[in-house]
Amino acid sequence: MIRQSRRLARSVSFDVTDGHGVIEVTGDESGSLLLLAGDPEFPEANDGCGSMGWLAARAGTGGPGLSDVKYLIEWLGAPGLVPDPRTGQAEPPDPEALRPLLSLLSPGRYVMTAALAPHHLRVVHPRALQVRNWYADEELALVTTDAWPPRDHGAVRRYRDRIRAGGGLPALVALFPTAESRVGYLLDGHHKLAKYGQAEVRPLVIRLVPQVPRPFRLDDLDRAQAAFSDSPSRHQGDTLGRVLSSMREESA
């Protein structure tokens, strides 16, 4: 059940009371961990070395996919959200419109906003059993959780043509650990994001954020350490080890 609370300007808070816990994010703007069906899938953090040495990594190939979050593709293709031409912000949708996706979240209170992405947007695509490094010099980075670039080129072309024809903007959905975080996990909208890039238009992003950030849990980090310990990324130095050690120090 999704219980909506008081609406604030350009945001809406809601409670997921019976969520299945398929999707959860822990951590804060300095680093976070995305869990799918309880398994650590993607850590994202600064390795503490070099200038802003951020990384994203995927914990193995046997983890759960995101097929269960695809119910909203049609609605998100034309959600009717109209960004303010001055601020880029849009009135967020009714949480009930996203119920199939929200029901997969871990129970708790979330805040939802909708706005055009900043001009400087980076797409970070981690591959199975690999660590991806990048410089966090953009205003926003989205970590992909599905195939990238998308394999369905026809769908990308349809979204691109719709945008160029001046139709309603399709929306991406991303999960962030805190409202201040510049890095989010793209839950839905990989084809839409690809076509936004081709059309050279700033994407419309629906942001989901736990109202109260969730600290790392030691058992999750232990399982993440085990999942990555057999990774070929070990030859990249101890980058991942430093990140997980830092997360461990901040865990509950």
Q: What's the number of helices? A: 6
Overall structural class, as computed from helix and strand content, comes to alpha+beta
Q: In what range is the share of β-strand residues?
A: 25-35%
Please outline the major beta sheet.
9 strands, mixed
Q: What's the SSE pattern?
A: EEEEEEHEHEEEEHEEHEHH
Cα separation of the termini: 28 Å
Uncertain runs with pLDDT below 50, 5 residues or more? Answer: none
Average predicted local confidence, pLDDT: 83
In angstroms, what is the radius of gyration?
18 Å
Number of strands: 14
| Spatial shape | globular
Question: Level of helix content?
Answer: 10-25%
In short:
The protein has 252 residues and is α+β, with helices and mostly antiparallel strands. The chain is built from six helices and 14 strands. Strand 3 (23-28) and strand 4 form a beta hairpin.
